[in-house]
Design goal:
This protein has 2 helices and 6 strands, in the order αββαββββ. The protein is α+β, with helices and mostly antiparallel strands and 159 residues long. It has one domain (14-151): Thiol Ester Dehydrase, Chain A, CATH 3.10.129.10. A 6-stranded antiparallel β-sheet has the order 1-2-4-5-6-3. The longest helix has 17 residues, at 65-81. It is globular and about 45 Å long. The two termini are 27 Å apart. It comes from Parasphingorhabdus litoris. InterPro entries: HotDog_dom_sf (IPR029069), PAAI_dom (IPR003736), Thioestr_dom (IPR006683).
Length: 159
Amino acid sequence: MTSETGPEQETDGSHEHFRALERLYKAAPINSLFDSDLEITERGFARITFAVDERHYHAAGAVHGTSYFKMLDDAAFYAANSLVSDRFLLTTAFNLLFTRPLKSSTVTAEGRWVSGKRRVFVADSRLIDQDGEEIARGTGTFMRSHIPLASLPGYKQDL
């Protein structure tokens, strides 16, 4: 699907870039701690499905805020980085709004690019529980780094 959602036009390489970002996500050591899958279907949008359980709980028996941050930041980050095919983006700020506690569940994090065309990008994200209820939302700013995506483990597919 061709869209005008981002600063770069759709190219024949978008599909490959999306798959490479999905591999990059899987290759990140932190993601071995989370049962999760990233899907990028179009420029400026990312969806991650997470399974959370008692391992993610704080002392009062609900999912700890660090898990909320991880899910929201990842979804917004990959929505923004789907628009940039040469450099890794870095999170420079992130704001969270918690709307309800979360117990063991399958959670969907959806991220959408909001603005930014060159160096700084803004994206928002939301968490939806398995009943379709929004449980949190966030907005982040992301900046181009000097790190080439192609230099990162997982991004470049081994031939």
